[in-house]
Amino acid sequence: MSAFYFSEAQFNCIARTLFSRGILKRDNHYEVSRFLQDFQSHEILQPYQKIKIILTFLEEDYARVKLMISKQNFSPEHFEDLKLLWLEAHCLEIETRRNKQEGRDVLQRFFQKSKYPSREEKKILAKQTNLTTTQVSTFFANQRARLRKLGHLF
């Protein structure tokens, strides 16, 4: 059970404050998410659902955002904002997918030239692909392991 119970009007006021003051931001969405846990008894309210969707968006879980919006029948008060959020999530999901593929392509091309990149080359590749140097190193280790498994010498 919730630690707090507010009327629907009171919770709507809390939600309006979160929206109007710009409190729902990427740099504090974890704190807002923890704060919102105290209001789980309000989860049937549309402002609560809207906040949860925005928090999910800030976590960059775009597929889940689209699903959450699609499952609800929001009132006109919330629908326009959420329709725009759905479109933005859709575009970012596609962009993320495209960027991942482009990053893999960059790594694959480099792997064809060199199976063992230097530390400096890994840093450059990480910057080009928006990955960490650890992720780049793991990619090369996995590629070499696949070649060994297939019996290819390099």
Question: Would you give an account of this structure?
Answer:
Keywords: DNA-binding, Homeobox, Nucleus. Residues 107-150 form the Homeobox domain. Residues 109-151 bind DNA. This protein has 154 residues and is mostly helical. The protein has two domains: 8-102; 114-154, no CATH class. It is built from seven helices and no strands. Helix 3 (46-58) runs parallel beside helix 5 (76-113) and helix 6 packs across helix 7 (133-149). The longest helix is centred in the middle third of the chain and has 38 residues, at 76-113.
Q: What's the structural blueprint in terms of helices and strands?
A:
Elements: H1 8-20, H2 29-37, H3 46-58, H4 62-71, H5 76-113, H6 119-129, H7 133-149
Helix pairs in contact: 2-3, 3-4, 3-5, 4-5, 6-7
Please name the defining characteristics of this protein:
2 domains, 0% strand, 72% helix, 154 residues, mainly alpha, single chain, 7 helices, elongated
What is the structure about, briefly put?
By secondary structure, this protein is mainly α.
Instruction: Round the mean pLDDT to the nearest integer and report it.
Output: 86
Number of helices: 7
Order of helices and strands: HHHHHHH
Tell me the number of structural domains. 2
Bin the helical content.
over 70%
Q: Structural class given helices, strands, pairing?
A: mainly alpha
Cα end-to-end separation: 61 Å
Share of β-strand residues: under 5%
Low-confidence stretches: none
> What's the story with the biggest beta sheet?
none
How many beta-strand segments? 0
Our Rg estimate from Cα atoms comes to 22 Å
